[in-house]
Amino acid sequence: MLSVQTKVNSRFATLLGERRMKISEVARATGISRTTLTNLYYGKGEAVSFSVLGRLCGYLSCSVGDILEVCQEVQK
Questions:
Q1: Where are the alpha helices (DSSP H) in 20-49?
Q2: pLDDT digit string (tens) for 12-57?
Q3: pTM surpassing 0.70?
Q4: Quick one: pLDDT band at residue 69, thresholds 50, 70, 90?
Q5: CA distance readout (Å), 61 to 2, 3, 47
Q6: What 3-state class would DSSP assign to 76?
Q7: Closest-CA residue to 38 (of 26, 50, 51)
Q8: In b/e form, how buried is each residue of 23-38, taking b as 16+ CB within 10 angstroms?
């Protein structure tokens, strides 16, 4: 029987790479802790608050979908 698992992956590292930005730069500008940004960058952690997502979207002029992506994996 096949099962489909839905995962949410962070695209934060890709986004910063495309813009040649550093975590420390984003932390200073947004007031978001480096620990939170580092966890998002490496895809660690279980949750990201709406306020963090809102501040990142405002600073980076992007949408939540640019930072996070939903993927479905089929498993046997």
A1: 23-30, 34-41
A2: 999 999 999 999 999 999 999 999 999 999 999 889 999 999 999 9
A3: yes
A4: very high
A5: 39, 36, 21
A6: coil
A7: 26
A8: beebbeebebeeebbe
Eight-class DSSP state of 75: E
Beta bridge partners of 6: 72
- List of residues 6+ apart from 22 with CB closer than 8 A: 16
Q: Are 52 and 10 in contact (CB under 8 A)?
A: no
For every residue of 42-68, DSSP letters joined together read TT-SS---HHHHHHHHHHHT--HHHHE
- Give dist(CA 11, CA 13) in Å, integer: 6
Close Cβ partners of 24 (under 8 Å, ≥ 6 residues apart) = 34
